[in-house]
Each structure stands twice: as structure tokens, then as C-alpha cells.
Amino acid sequence: MKIIALAIVILSGGLLLYATQDFPSWADPASPASMHVSPHYLQKSMEETSVPNVVTAVLADYRGFDTMFETTVIFCAGVACFMLLRISRQTPEDRYYRHISTGVTIHIKGGGKIPDKSKEFERIDTMWTPFDLVIKTVCRFLIPFIQLFALYVIAHGHHSPGGGFQGGVIFGASIILLAISHNLRIATKRMREKLVGLLCVTGVFIYAGTGALCLLMGLNFLDYGALAPLLHVDPVEARSLGILIVEVGVGIAVMATMIWIYNNVSSAGKYDEGL
Amino acid sequence: MSQHYPALLVIVPLLSALLISAAGWLNKRLCFPIAVAALSVASFSSVGLLFRVLDEKVVLYKLGGWSPPWGIAYSVDYLNGLVLVVVSVVALLNLIATQRSVEQEFSEKIGAFYTLYILFVTGLLGIVVTGDAFNLYVLLEIASLTGYGLIAMGEDRAPLATLNYLYMGTIGASFGDRVSLYCNRFA
Amino acid sequence: MSDLIPFIIAKYNYWIFITLMMIGMYAMIAKNNLVKKIVGMNIFQTAIILFYVSIGAKKGATIPILEHAHGDAHGAVSHTVEVAHYINPLPHVLMLTAIVVSVATLGVALALAINVYNRHKTLEEDEIIDQIKGI
């Protein structure tokens, strides 16, 4: 099997390398890729959309329809992971508790439980690591700053590299950091499963809803100039604001999906213990 | 509204897939009626679009208001219109016919199942109606991902077979991505 | 031989990315463990993304964010934009889409691998095929 694989790989690699003879040299300003459509984007993006970041302007305005389906792809992945893995809890379940001062562990079968607020017993999972002061404290300090940076990246997508996808992933990573450093149960208590699912739907709905609003106002789908009478600005500025609205939608959807996929995959659908 | 049929064909199923997913969390009995309503609107728009195409030979719909090389345009002609009608009507009939067996098999994840089904039909309708090569790649990815989710719920050999389908789909989409991007770049 | 040297030196970026692509494809075909195949798929997709982004580079150019444009009155173009001064924004836009697709596919592939493990209790592909054939 390995010899066949090696033969296939060498053959296709050889064919591709032979095809690179016709490619333009690296970093050539006059290569065909940069000659046809992209000069128009570079020259006209400021006067047609008033957004200096050309990548964001192309992504969210000229080709905004593609970006809406991108957000739908992320949403599909979240729903597919949920549908493949999620197992509803079969009650009654076994619980493990640990007496904090003496270190004795208790295994309670069949649904009995000790109340959550008890000062002497803490609930643990089958794989338990001792309380680590440094990691937990450092992560607790870092997480709000990470979230603030994520909001900055989303909001400044017009003037610096960034945008909805990038900011959404950073925001999702902050909640995943909470799940890794503490406990999956604590992270799930902060952001419940129903909230995460509904946030995912809300993000994509903001994007598609903005486009449908433009449709109802008379112009074509996702033509942000139709929002100008609603926002009391002129059409070019309305495009810039429309881009900001859809980027917020994308950020929310990506954040919720990252958290959803991590929760499902790391606990294999059971939501009891994570990594 | 009749001038917006090409967009309605794809947008209404997409928005209703989101509503079905929310209904799956909140109230499970609304999932099936919303799905039937969405596919009925899509079938009705595709039939209306076919009649429009029979009058004026090609229907061009510019999304976002930008003309073709700089924005995305949907173009529908005779072949497109016919395939759209076939796909949407068959999907609607299939949805109605399999309602009872789906409710028996997926009683608690029914919101997720109908969401994936409607998104799959959205992907297929979009692949047929689009006139832009990169949009085709993105819609192909939607159809592929929802296909992986739907196929993997089968009987014993399903997950392994889905993994093999995933590898093939990824390699195919990557190389097709390359072809479509070169077309986009040079046109 | 003499025209092979400029061919290699001017285009060595394509050679590197094609090598990465072939490493990924070899891992997808030849490895036995399911997770190693999934990692190979990810390497393959990453190589394609890098390949495209390298096409858009231009010698001595800066990132495609228009300078001195913040605060300009919208609709008025106060300076002409020199196209060779900014790199091509189009591959970056299209590859954002490809990165998102690769993350989504990785998530679904890992969920499928967990499903396979729950059903067959192993992740080695030849053992799984033996179990399926034995049934």
C-alpha cells in the first residue's frame, strides 16, 4: 500500500512541478493574477465604499454573498458535529466527589448528589488534576483582555487587518481557554448549550437579515446602499456601516460555533468532562 | 417581488433553516411546517423563474448591485431553469413523504436533521443557479458538509464510509478551487 | 541545465508548496491510523492556501490597506492609488474562505473519527475493515 501511495505521490508531484514552468515568477508585479480585476478594487474601493482596508471591502461588500455562505458553512459544521455526537444524558448518573481537607473521594451511584454550594466537597471527574493556583489565576486575568482584543479586531476591520472571522475565533478561543484551564463544567455553566446554539443562529441571521432588509427596501439582495434612508447617511457611507453590521454578525456566529464544536468534540458528546 | 426570484430561491431556504434550528431548541413541533413552507416558496419561485426565462432568454441578477467581474451575478437560462424546478420539487415531495420515518428515527435531534436537509437543498439550488465560479466552490462546500452530516447517521458502515467521502471531497474541492480561482483571475 | 537554474531560483516557492502538498497527500493515502489521515488532510489544505497567498505577492509592496485614507471625505479621491505599491488583495480574500472551510471540515472529520471509535473501539483502519468484513 505504501509503495502504491509513494508512486501516486511522486507522479502527481512531478506533473505539478512540470506545470510550474508556465507560472509567473514569485513577487512579479506584472503577473496575470494582479492585472485584471484587482487594480479596480485597489483604486475604487475608497470612493465606492469608503473603507480603506481593501480586503474587508472586497470580502464584505463586493463579494458579500460568498461571505454569507461562508458563515453558513461554519454553521453547518457546528450543526453536523452536534448531530453526530450529542448524546442526551441518561439519568440516573454516577457522581464523584472529593472531600477537600482529607482528599477522600466518594463515588455516589444512581442519581444521589451533594448540593453544589457545599464547602467541604467538590465535584470531580474521573480524570482529576490537582488545583493549580498559577494556571487558574493567570487564565482568569487573561480572559477578559483576550475578549477585549477580539472586540477590537472585529470593530477595526475597516482600518487594520482584522474583521469578523478573525475576531470571532479569538473570542471563541477565550471561552475554550476557560474550559481548558478550569473545567468543562464551569465553562458550560458560563455559556450554556442552548445559549451557544441560539447565538450561532443569531449571527447568521444578522447577516442574512441585513441582506433581506436591503431586498425589502427595493434594491438587489445585499446592496447596502438601500440602507441609506434607514440610517440617515448617504449611500457610500451606508456601505461602510453595512459592512460593520455584517462583520458583527459573522463574529458572533464564528464564536458560537467554535465553542460548540469544542464542547461536542472534547467531551465526545456527553458534556460531562472535557480534556 | 418577481424580479427577485433568483435570490429568493436561495435566501428563503437559508433563513428558514436558521428558524428551524432555533425551533429545534425552543419548540420542536414547528420544525416540519417551517421546512415545508420554505421548500414550497423555493419551488414556486423556481417555476416562476422558468416562466420568466421562457419569455426573456437569459435572466441576469446582480447581487449587491455590482456588475459581473467585480461582483457576483446569477444568470439563469433554459437548462438552469429546468434543473432548478426538478431539484426543488423533488426535494419538497421527498420531505413530505418521509416525515413519519424521520420522526421515528430522530426524535430528539429533529431540529438538527431538518436544518441539515434544508441547507443541503439550498446548496444544490445555489450550485445550479450561480454564475460565478468561486460562489460555486462555496456552495459545493455547503452541500458537501451537510452531506457528510446526513450520510454519517446511517447504519453500520456509515461513519467510515463518510470519512472516505470526506477525503475525496476535500481533495476534489481543493483542486476544483484552484481551477475556479484561475478562471476568476483571468476573466 | 543552464535554464534550469533560473527556473528553480525564480519559482522556488511553488516547489516548496508542492512538496508540502505531496507530503499531505501521502499521509492521507498511506497511513493506517485515522487521526494521522485527518492531519494529512489538514497539511494538504494548508499547502494549497499558502500556494495561493504566495501568488499575490509583489516585490517591495505593502499590505493592501490604503494609506492616508482615514478621514478622507467619502466619495472624493484625493490621491491616486499606485497599484504596484500594494499587494494583490484578491488571493487573501479567497483564502479566508478556504481557511474557514478547512477548519469546518477538520471539526466534522474529528467528530466522525469519534463516532468510528465508539462503534469499533479502535482507530486503526485495517482492524476496522477486518471487523466490518467479519460481521
Overview of the molecule:
The complex is a heterotrimer of chains A (275), B (187) and C (135). Chain A has 275 residues and is mainly α. Chain A has a domain at 48-87 and 127-266. Helix content of chain A is 61%, strand content 5%. Chain A is built from ten helices and three strands. Chain A has a three-stranded antiparallel β-sheet, with no helix packed on it. In chain A, helix 2 crosses helix 3, helix 3 (54-62) crosses helix 4 (64-85) and helix 6 (164-181) crosses helix 7 (184-190). The model of chain A has no long low-confidence stretch (mean pLDDT 84). Chain B has one domain (2-133). Chain B contains seven helices and two strands, in the order ααββααααα. In chain B, strands 1-2 form a two-stranded antiparallel sheet. In chain B, a hairpin with an 8-residue loop joins strand 1 and strand 2. In chain B, helix 2 packs parallel to helix 5 and helix 5 packs antiparallel against helix 6. The two termini of chain B are 31 Å apart. The model of chain B has no long low-confidence stretch (mean pLDDT 87). With 135 residues, chain C is mainly alpha-helical. Chain C has a single domain (4-59, 84-134), classed as Helix Hairpins, CATH 1.10.287. In chain C, helix 2 (12-30) runs antiparallel to helix 3 (34-55) and helix 3 runs antiparallel to helix 4 (90-120). The N and C termini of chain C lie far apart (59 Å). Chains A and C meet through helix 1, helix 2, helix 3, helix 4 and helix 10 of A and helix 2 and helix 4 of C.
Compact description:
The complex is a heterotrimer of chains A (275), B (187) and C (135). Chain A has 275 residues and is mostly helical. Helices cover 61% and strands 5% of the residues of chain A.
